[in-house]
Amino acid sequence: MRTIVRGFWGPRPESVDVVADRWLATLTAIDSLLPGGGWQQVHASGPPTALLPDREPLLRALRAAEADEAWSDVIGTGLRLIRTATAGCEIEASGLAGGAPEYLLQSLVIGITAPDGFVLPESRLLTAVVLAWDPDFGDVTDDDILDALEDDAGFTVGDPALGRLAYLSAGRGARLPDDLGAARREALAAGVVVETGGGPEEVVRVSRLLRDAGALESLPRPMDRALW
Fold first, then answer.
1. Nearest partner of 199 among 151, 149, 158, judged by Cα
2. Do 115 and 13 belong to one domain?
3. Is the Cβ–Cβ distance between 82 and 51 less than 8 Å?
4. Virtual CA dihedral for 16, 22, 24, 25, nearest 10 degrees?
5. Structural domain tally of the chain?
6. pLDDT for residue 119
7. I want to staple 140 with a disulfide (CB 3.0 to 4.6 A). Which of 94, 122, 213, 221 is the partner?
């Protein structure tokens, strides 16, 4: 099954230089945790092309993407990269960042399909996303969890959500209820990580608690800030 590590935030206008630095931190962390083959950039048309995980190649890729998208100064600059790790994990990292859209979240999403029995460093991957991108919320999840949240917890695409692990920015973390049952919390950067410690049913249970406490409210639309 595919594991998804995600971070989301609201409007945060940034230059491609800043976005390139964030991408470089992300790729460096992934390469350290899941070493393997080289990165390739996926394009809207044509085959993927090799991309070295260094600042200058990332800057060139982002500037080209910015030039191709007339609204990149508003919606952000997108980049999609793929790689195969030595352990056999298929990795895709995609992001939309640097813009200030009022209704579209900025994001960094890492999708990993791992061989059966392979244990991913999920906590460290989420930490890498948080430290590189300073998101409003993020999680480590999969399709079973997302389906359960949609069916049983009122989740819709774009809502803040929990996974096996979830990161909440400081404002959201301040609304965490005292009693999370078996779930654990731990400080990370300016926010907090919640570890549900269970399957989809436990994620749904904790998600309901956090939603009732106001910790999973969506950023108000039109959005005017990056963090809740």
1. 149
2. yes
3. no
4. 170
5. 2
6. 96
7. 122
